[in-house]
Design goal:
The protein contains 26 helices and 31 strands. It has 900 residues and is an alpha+beta fold. Strand 10 and strand 11 form a beta hairpin. It binds (3S)-3,7-diaminoheptanoic acid and zinc ion (ZN).
């Protein structure tokens, strides 16, 4: 969800004569440090904004009530405000215009000299939203004005103290041509609407809650809307309104239900009620991330609002719900209580991810939701933690804060909250949350304040636990055991280690909560427990066990660590079938598949013939016969670990061997279990049933489509099956359409092109579906995929200024298509370099995100290392690269040795 612009690059198209272009000299590529934090010298009590929206320029008037901060330590009397790419028209202090000697603009800062203790400041600026391609600050999307202020977008509209610990009360007046922009929105409650004879409309909003400027939002456009209401637990009626671009009203029902579901859940589970009279969501097509939690006026990427059976898949439906829940939950964890500084980002993001994960677990499938959390963490956070961009959940230094909206801050941050819940227990954790809300409502606070509330509410000492916030890297637990048949004593030896990460060569032991259980050889649970690992080495004794047990370790993934325990295949099979912890059943299956594939990769390296063990196929066979009561989980258990996850287990990533072996194994599974897959497919494929979104139906569809995936690997008489599903579902059921098309996408046959063309013709007017079409082609395993991707860059539907299109086409290829991206000739790397350099001039945030796959260069063979290193160097040496890209690239290159 994820996901502003930095200073130095010129904002494309801004008139160099009027708007100052910055020279390289002004770029501050120096890091800022957490330990340098100081309270603001001045506070802003109120801000009264007026936006006059025009086609050529937007005029912003800002009236501030400023006062010296009694807690500040600085002695001089200068007020320093942030501002970027602004044309300053005038400044007046206590109603008197300032002359040129009284202020100075330098390095994106406005210095006002010798100010009094309390004063008003009126600032007029001009901006050009229509030319803002960085999508930070005020910009235009499909003709409508909208904003994105987190982290540093507000300073691109007016001069202000753009830091989260400066919280002000906002009133906003928007003036615009009523015919063009009938909808004018901002935070808080609507105060007045005035219409004038010149066709202009003047709308005033006031937000009663103090907030940092990153939570400011403004929308001006011609939008459709749907309205509903919610009665809160205390009986207040809240108006709910979702605004969408014209013609999309029929795709908002699911989102509206999700809002109500999230509101109810937060009341029931955390006792948190909504606080304004209206809650508005606006969905826009051009957005850098998933969505933004602006107070009372969330702005969303259309991707996370628009959904109906014809246009959205099961996974889209689930994402809409969880992103809506996430942004809504921010109202308490982020808005009412915000971050003191951006180093504390995980205070709101880790906590809010934890809250949305808990919501999804409660409202869908607890096990599948957890599987998804863990897959996300392993796919994106583990590699980050193991590479040159590794940073603690609370980073200590940052060049560009927008580079820190990472899987570590978000997903590992959520795991750190989850571990506190596990250590304290549900009840004490809830008391800790209540205390946190009571103590800090209306404040900008730190991660330390959060942990302290947890400690105070529970009486549990979290001193050692705090290391999870300051030490980077994924800890590894090496676990060994022994059983004494004479005494019945069983012993677990657990050793924790954590490898070096940038700036942190040595790690102290973490406090790791390990949920575990012991099963007997028949699969019966003997006991379960929560072990606290606090030292580098720990020993746990279990008495009176009748026979050597099988340990079920790290149940429900109770800590973000890697476990190494020498399971036999028979033990893994036992866990797959009997573990009372359903997450660990899945985990055992993944471990089993991984063992099989790693052995096969070794065989490839040793030039030995590949062999798929019969017991593994039998284990899957057994699943198919016994797990049908939980179809969604069964579907998950039938899926092999991704190529990226397998790569995590290799010292030198061999992309070709990984790809080959995974294909061989999947095809063998398909061959041997074909009759089962066919039967299950037929049983669950009901073409006449209308699409319904509930967990039962999702489970059925996921299972059926997993069967289809395997059957289509057989490349034989099953192809018509996929084609038929594609044709029947095309206009009514996007889940089934995409599942079928995804299988055809990897087959080098005329049916593939035909289906892709039919799909495009059917859906070419729906941009989100065209994104699916781009993403699919970029994910194809076929050897000409890069050529195809390059061709698609010139397709009329592709637009490099639209982040969704960039993610779909370039992102899918470079991030997810390991096999095709890493061809040994380095063509994929050169392609990515060209894209990054082009994107950096348009939207540095997106460019910095795209360049990340190259940071993992040390993981590959010497040939690929050289090629990846070379393109990183070329990017680093390109003229005028943004601070965003600069930070990622220089950190990636830092240790320049090539590891053979
Ligand atoms: N808080 C925003 C992220 C803003 C990213 C700025 N580069 C979305 C979210 O996490 O809810
Ligand atoms: Zn968030």
């Amino acid at each position: 969800m994820g996901h502003d612009l930095r200073a130095a690059l010129s904002i494309s198209g801004i008139n160099a004569g009027v708007f100052p272009r910055k020279s390289m000299k002004n770029i501050t590529q120096e890091p800022i440090y957490l330990h340098d934090y100081q309270v603001p010298d001045y506070l802003i009590d109120t801000i009264d904004l007026t936006f006059e929206l025009n086609e050529e320029y937007t005029r912003v008037k800002s009236l501030l009530n400023v006062m010296a901060n009694p807690l500040a330590t600085r002695q001089d009397r200068h007020l320093i405000l942030h501002g970027e790419a602004l044309e300053l028209i005038s400044i007046a202090l206590n109603n008197k215009p300032l002359n040129a000697e009284q202020y100075e603009i330098k390095n994106d800062k406005l210095h006002i000299f010798s100010v009094p203790d309390e004063f008003t400041l009126e600032i007029h600026t001009l901006i050009k939203p229509q030319e803002n391609t960085a999508l930070s600050g005020l910009y235009k999307s499909c003709g409508n004005f909208c904003t994105q202020c987190e982290a540093h977008g507000f300073r691109r509209m007016t001069y202000f103290l753009d830091r989260p610990d400066v919280m002000a009360r906002f009133t906003t007046t928007i003036i615009a041509d009523e015919a063009k922009y009938p909808v004018l929105l901002s935070n808080g409650n609507l105060i007045s609407i005035e219409k004038s004879e010149d066709g202009k409309q003047r709308v005033k909003w006031a937000d009663p809650f103090k907030k940092p400027c990153y939570l400011f939002a403004l929308v001006g456009g011609d939008l459709d809307s749907v309205e509903d209401y919610f009665i809160t637990q205390s009986g207040r009626q809240v108006t709910l309104r979702i605004y969408v671009e014209k013609g999309n009203r029929d795709k908002t029902a699911h989102a509206m239900e999700a809002v109500k579901k999230a509101m109810r859940w937060d009341e029931e589970v955390f006792g948190r009620e909504y606080d304004l009279d209206i809650y508005m969501i606006v969905a826009v097509s051009d957005f850098n991330m998933g969505a933004m939690e602006n107070k009372g006026l969330n702005i969303f990427n259309t991707q996370y609002i628009l959904a109906n059976p014809e246009t959205a898949t099961d996974v889209d439906f689930i994402h809409v719900e969880s992103v809506i829940a996430h942004e809504y939950f921010h109202n308490w964890t982020g808005n009412r209580i915000t971050c003191r500084d951006w180093f504390q980002l995980s205070l709101k993001e880790g906590l809010t991810i934890f809250r949305d994960q808990s919501f999804t677990a409660d409202t869908t499938s607890k096990t599948v939701a957890r599987i998804q959390d863990v897959k996300d963490l392993r796919q994106s956070q583990f590699p980050e933690d193991a590479g040159p961009l590794a940073h603690p959940v609370r980073p200590e230094s940052v060049i560009e804060i927008n580079n820190f909206y990472t899987a570590t801050v978000y997903n590992k941050g959520a795991e750190v909250i989850r571990m506190q819940q596990t250590i304290l227990g549900q009840d004490a954790f809830r008391k800790g949350m209540d205390l946190y809300f009571d103590r800090h409502d209306g404040q900008a606070v730190t991660i330390e304040d959060f942990v302290k509330a947890m400690e105070d509410a529970s009486g549990i000492d979290l001193t050692q636990f705090r290391l999870w916030y300051s030490q980077a890297g994924t800890p590894v637990l090496k676990i060994k055991d022994e059983y004494d048949a004479k005494t019945g004593n069983y012993t677990l030896h657990i050793e924790q280690t954590c490898t070096e990460t940038p700036g942190q060569p040595h790690k102290k032991p973490f406090h790791i909560p390990v949920k575990m259980g012991l099963l007997d050889q028949q699969g019966k649970e003997l006991l379960h427990d929560l072990l606290h690992i606090k030292n580098a080495k720990e020993v746990f004794h279990f008495k009176n066990l009748p026979s050597k047990p099988v340990p079920s370790l790290l149940r429900h993934f109770s800590a973000p660590v890697k476990v190494q325990y020498p399971y036999t295949n028979a033990e893994l099979q036992l866990l797959m079938q009997h573990d009372t912890d359903l997450f660990n059943r899945w985990e055992a299956g993944q471990q089993y598949a991984l063992n099989v594939m790693l052995k096969m990769i070794q065989d490839v390296h040793d030039n030995k013939p590949l062999h798929v063990p019969g017991e593994y196929i039998s284990a899957l066979n057994h699943l198919l016969l016994t797990m049908q009561h939980d179809k969604w989980l069964l579907a998950e258990m039938l899926m092999l670990p991704t190529e990226k996850y397998i790569a995590e287990y290799m010292t030198v990533v061999d992309v070709d061997a990984i790809h080959h072996v995974r294909e061989v194994l999947a095809t063998e599974i398909a061959k041997q279990l074909k009759p089962h897959f066919l039967t299950l497919y037929e049983e669950h494929h009901d073409v006449t049933a209308p699409y319904v979104f509930n967990i039962h139906e999702v489970g059925k569809r996921q299972l059926k489509n997993t069967c289809l995936f395997y059957l289509m690997l057989l490349n034989d008489e099953t192809i018509p099956l996929g084609l038929k599903q594609f044709e029947l579902a095309l206009k009514t059921n996007m889940t089934d359409t995409m599942a079928a098309l995804a299988t055809l996408n990897n087959i080098d046959a005329p049916e593939r092109d035909m289906a892709l063309n039919v799909f495009y013709e059917q859906w070419k007017n729906d941009p989100l579906i065209v994104d699916k079409w781009f993403a699919l082609q970029a994910s194809s395993k076929l050897p000409n995929t890069l050529k195809q991707v390059k061709k698609l860059l010139h397709h009329s539907a592709f637009d490099i200024k639209n982040p969704n299109k960039v993610y779909a086409l370039i992102g899918s290829f470079c991030n997810r298509n390991l096999h095709c991206f890493h061809t040994p000739d380095g063509e994929g790397y050169a392609f990515l370099k060209d894209c990054v350099l082009q994107l950096d001039k348009i939207n540095p945030q997106i460019a910095a995100r795209m360049v990340k796959p190259l940071s993992e260069w040390r993981r590959y063979d010497v040939g690929r290392q050289h090629l990846m290193h070379e393109v990183l160097e070329q990017i680093a040496q390109s003229k005028n690269i943004s601070k965003d890209v600069f930070e990622i690239v220089t950190k990636s290159l830092k240790k320049q040795e090539i590891i053979a």
